[in-house]
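Re-run with default settings, no changes from the original entry. Doing this only to confirm the output is reproducible before filing.
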Amino acid sequence: MEKFRLADIEENNTIKNQIQRGFREQNPFGSEGFREENKIYLDLTYMFKTPGKNSIRIKDVELLIPDVIKAHQMLKNNEGNIFDGNIPMTGWQNLPLEITEEHIRDIKAVTSELSGKIDAFVSLGIGGSYLGIEATFRALTHGYFNQLSRKQRGDTPEIYFLGQNMDPDYFRDTLDMLEGKRIAINVISKSGTTTETAIAFRILRNLLEKSCFNNANQMILATTDKEKGILRKMSDEMGYKSFVIPDDIGGRFSVLTDVGLVGLAMANIDIEEFVAGFRNMREITLTDEFWQNPSLIHAALRYAAWRAGKKIEVIATNAKSLYSVARWMEQLFPESEGHEGHGMWVSPSFYSEKLHANGQMIQQGERNIIETFLMLCEHDNRIQIPREKVDSDGLNFLSDRGLDMGFINKNVVEGPAYAHFQGGIPNMTIKIPKRNAFNLGQIYYMMEKSVAISGYLLGHNPFIQPGVEAYKKAMFALIGKPGFEDQAQSMETNLKQIKRIKI
């Protein structure tokens, strides 16, 4: 049987970009022309005056402007309900300016040296110690990265993620992918006691020590607190190369810290360009001119929608590469806003796939939804649609007009945006020009500032997450962790009063 060939299909530009990064070729991110080509746009065409009840009016947003500006000024001055203990959790605001070229060189030196010694790199973390790294990696690399040759990956090891769940089958399957390879791991945890990550670290560390004998410690990186915690103590005692999680930056705001930069550097993502994107959006969002500041606009729109009874935000993208960014936002906003009965549930979606699933609900279900589109305007690749002699599927009009898959995919946003608006769903589109590290940095900073402003508007601290501790305590009690005996006894007493229903 003949082998499948990519006849008349152009070279994959995502692979080409990976190879170029492997040769340390950079985009001209310092130029004015590059910044102009990579402007992020907010399209609010379908946000106001939707048909039906509970529509949002532009007047509703304008009435919020004084409160939004006040919140912004307080944020910039580190004032208000922003503290965890006695630490203001706003170190992310000026971090783009504080990262030095020397620090970037140090990270790249460590990862470059280690990269040449390994076949696979495993990042261990959960929540903010995982989602931002994976989102950036997925956004900028081939969809089947680990199945490519090392050359096609840009002379980069395979990249894996563990420690973000407790599914033993998933963990075991990943071990199969690692068997027989030279591996290194980066364990990311401020305390070192986060259950999911700590268990993954214990298992992998044990396997490394049995495989590498006296060399295992050289294959372990630790990203943790500068001075305290179990992982810091272990790193110092075992001699792991370590990186620092700042005290004043929470996990879901940490992708620009060593939490994100180390793993991204290992994957040959241009972390200098990444930092430049953060810096650019920081500069853009410094202004108190409301209609010139996308973070303030975004925060006000979502708050106005919440006040109008919108309880769910569908964050939809037309790019598989950006779906993980929507998942990053799924943590950033609910974990920051879900206090005291406040906030919207965030539902990440990949269109047009999900349009054949929950699309019916969005179009005609309960009108408690808003929609935010992450629209990739220019994909890495163009796929032409061939013309056929017999136009049985009726698609020759596309090839006759020279229209490719990218054109259709753009309308996977434009079409639903219009249809859903007509169905009573207010929606906005965030237009992202291209797949590059600069634009990822811009999006992250824009969203971090937006959710910070949201905290002021909602009247609670967006930088803490006390509700997350409830599941941890219950789980620790159930698994018999020492120190949780009272919790276990209390749960046992309460459970006796609850009738277990099994059918």
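The mean pLDDT is 96. Residues 10 and 255 are 34 Å apart (CA to CA).
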